[in-house]
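We store chain and fold; example below:
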Amino acid sequence: MQNRGWGRKAKKLAAKKSGNYYQRTNIRAEYVNHKSIAPMVLNDFFHTKLFEACGSQLLVKELKLGQIVIMDNSAFHRSQKTKELL
C-alpha cells in the first residue's frame, strides 16, 4: 500500500493503512561455462554483503581469465569489494 492519497486542498487526509505488505522474492544464479551455478531463491531483499559473499565463494572460483561478467545497475553490483573481486 502506498502512503499517499487524494484529498481536498489544505485539508489533512486521514485514512487507515492496511499494514499488509507483499513478500519479495529474489531469484539469482550465475551461468558460467555453459552451466548454472549456485541458483538461489531468497524471500527477502538481496543486499551487498550477500552478493559479495556469493561472489567470493562461488562466482570467482568458476571464472577463468578473459571471461566477461555482465551485471545490471543494482547498488550491490557497484560496491568496491565487488569491483576488487572481479
Summary: Residues 36 and 80 are 25 Å apart (CA to CA). Strands lie at 26-32, 35-42. The chain has a mean pLDDT of 80.
